[in-house]
């Protein structure tokens, strides 16, 4: 369903993504982990056709991502890093726009939008302009926009950050449900405890290279411990300017 | 005192940066053309621009600090009062008003005129302290449009109407409408001139159609399964939905021709060099030469339709369609990153 071969992306002298190869099967929930600046968002942008790779090939939903960008957009749902919302449209108008451009009729759009607004606790804020929404509301709106057209593959950049625990659980359940319907889910996140519960494939990236790719059952330790082993966190020095420790 | 001084210093820097966008008036088609064509005769237009500019210039500098941050700072009551007292003087308009008051006292102009200008300043200053959320209240109820671009057109419409270009065009259009209503005996060419002025006031916006979409909006355009020409056309429909009603009381067909010409020329800088714009400011054109070329072309298109034949509208429509298609293609190409 998602296949990348020797994918590389350079920004002048910086190699953000370095010859990565990965395969995600239909109906899988692939969590793509790594520290800030590891290349997660760059990879996601390349997989969704937002950023052309410097070299390598990408096939998503049976389409060459670089050769058929518009057809690819029809088949996938994306929650981008910057959410991609218009300040001058309300939450509900964003969903109405999504339904219209993906070819859904008004009744179907209304029905799906109503269900998503309810599930994501956005009903009260449906007439709020995106520019006036909290970050959490904006993220939920972008998440609903990704789901509404019933995509074959979902790409989500940090969907659980800034989301309350209840909605986070709803979103998690939704992702598991859509995966059961054969939708491939590819997501990045830093909240290991959340993604640990839904992943069917764990991929870790560090300094632009994939350092781990397996089903969660094959992890030698817990996800969190294994992540810390691979990422090598720096030691925290005592903050001397706080004065001597008293407790 | 040191704390208040540090805050005022930071506030002055933030306010100065914010006011830089007001320099956009210098790169605005309408202002450039008025300056070039009317010179001394353009006093009324300059007064109009000054009045339109007075509103964004008269904001309270203290609102540059988020209310929550200001509340969190460990300041004494006296320091807060001092901040409230001194911060308005960061705004140069406050000094201007004080200077004008001295001038009025010496009898250089009437006290009534000073009171009017100062009143506008004070009212805007106080209004600027009311928390404003983008898109709220005034422009919620924009009309629905048929087709799948509906929400895009509505969004674009909300963006246009919160620019000073629109405010300026609206004032000019209202002036023309009043002349029409009272049957003022004007030469037929006057209607053409007023129409050109209205479209000229909007024309710089046509060069930065994506300026108010922000980075998030531009990312969303790249995700939508729409052809590039559709995204541009949705922008143009909103522009025409503003320009046509504004030129309706003047010379409507010439208004359509001028608007399409402004858009046909404006697509190039709008797509190739999208420049971020600010709400309640004048739009900035891509450059003086390009601005004058656009102004010349839209004047030619309007004159041809108004003075020669409405058939001149056809080549203008063809040119607009070709521009929309061509720059739509460029818009669709993935970002180089």
How would you characterize the overall build of this protein?
The complex is a heterodimer of chains A (247) and B (337). Chain A is α/β, with parallel strands linked by helices and 247 residues long. Chain A has a single domain, classed as P-loop containing nucleotide triphosphate hydrolases (Rossmann fold), CATH 3.40.50.300. Helix content of chain A is 33%, strand content 24%. Chain A has eight helices and ten strands. Chain A has helices at residues 40-47, 69-75, 91-101, 106-119, 135-147, 165-180, 192-195, 223-231, and strands at 2-11, 14-24, 29-33, 55-60, 63-64, 76-79, 153-157, 184-188, 201-206, 209-214. Chain A has a six-stranded mixed β-sheet, with helices on both faces. In chain A, strand 4 and strand 5 (63-64) form a beta hairpin. The radius of gyration of chain A is 19 Å and the shape is globular. The mean pLDDT of chain A is 91. The chains are: A alpha/beta (247), B mainly alpha (337). The interface between A and B is medium-sized, with 35 and 34 residues.
């Amino acid at each position: 369903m998602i296949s990348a071969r020797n994918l590389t992306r350079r920004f002048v002298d910086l190699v953000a993504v370095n010859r990565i190869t990965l395969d995600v099967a239909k109906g899988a929930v692939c969590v793509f982990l790594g520290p800030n600046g590891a290349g997660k968002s760059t990879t996601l942008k390349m997989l969704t056709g937002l950023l052309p790779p410097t070299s390598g090939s990408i096939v998503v939903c049976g389409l060459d991502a670089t050769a058929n960008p518009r057809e690819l957009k029809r088949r996938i749902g994306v929650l981008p890093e910057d959410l991609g919302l218009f300040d001058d449209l309300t939450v509900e108008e964003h969903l109405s726009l999504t339904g219209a451009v993906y070819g859904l009729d008004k009744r179907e759009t209304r029905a799906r939008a109503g269900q998503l607004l309810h599930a994501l606790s956005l009903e009260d804020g449906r007439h709020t302009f995106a520019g006036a929404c909290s970050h959490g509301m904006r993220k939920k709106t972008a998440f609903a926009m990704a789901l509404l057209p019933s995509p074959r593959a979902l790409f989500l950049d940090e969907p659980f950050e800034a989301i309350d625990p209840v909605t986070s659980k709803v979103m998690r359940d939704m992702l598991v449900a859509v995966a059961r319907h054969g939708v491939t889910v590819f997501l990045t996140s830093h909240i290991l405890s959340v993604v640990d519960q839904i992943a069917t494939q764990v991929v870790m990236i560090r300094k632009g290279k994939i350092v781990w790719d397996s089903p969660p059952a094959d992890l030698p330790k817990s996800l969190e411990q294994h992540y810390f082993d691979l990422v090598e966190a720096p030691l925290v020095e005592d903050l001397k300017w706080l004065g001597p420790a008293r407790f | 005192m040191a704390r208040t001084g540090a805050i005022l210093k930071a506030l002055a820097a933030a306010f100065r940066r914010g006011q830089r966008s007001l320099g956009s008036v210098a790169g605005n088609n309408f202002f450039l053309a008025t300056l070039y064509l009317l010179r001394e005769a353009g006093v009324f237009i300059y007064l109009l621009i000054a009045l339109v500019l007075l509103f964004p210039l008269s904001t309270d500098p203290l609102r540059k600090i988020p209310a929550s941050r200001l509340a969190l700072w460990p300041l004494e009551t006296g320091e807060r009062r001092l901040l409230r007292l001194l911060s308005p003087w960061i705004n140069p308009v406050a000094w201007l008003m004080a200077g004008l008051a001295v001038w009025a006292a010496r009898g250089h102009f009437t006290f009534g005129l000073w009171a009017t200008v100062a009143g506008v300043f004070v009212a805007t200053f106080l209004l600027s302290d009311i928390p404003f959320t983008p898109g709220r209240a005034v422009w919620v109820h924009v009309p629905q449009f048929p087709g799948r671009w509906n929400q895009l057109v509505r969004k674009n419409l909300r963006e246009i109407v919160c620019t000073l270009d629109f405010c300026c065009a609206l004032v000019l259009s209202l002036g023309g409408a009043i002349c029409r209503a009272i049957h003022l005996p004007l030469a037929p060419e006057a209607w053409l001139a007023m129409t050109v002025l209205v479209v000229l006031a909007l024309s710089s916006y046509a060069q930065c159609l994506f300026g108010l979409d922000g980075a998030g909006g531009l990312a969303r355009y790249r995700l939508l399964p729409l052809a590039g020409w559709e995204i541009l056309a949705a922008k143009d429909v909103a522009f025409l939905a503003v320009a046509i009603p504004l030129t309706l009381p003047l010379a409507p067909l010439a208004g359509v021709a001028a608007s399409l010409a402004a858009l046909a020329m404006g697509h190039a800088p709008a797509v190739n060099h999208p420049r971020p714009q600010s709400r309640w400011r004048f739009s900035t054109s891509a450059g003086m030469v390009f601005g004058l070329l656009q102004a010349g072309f839209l004047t030619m298109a309007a004159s041809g339709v108004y003075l020669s034949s409405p058939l001149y509208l056809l080549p203008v429509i063809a040119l607009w369609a070709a521009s929309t298609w061509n720059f739509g293609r460029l818009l669709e190409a993935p970002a180089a990153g």
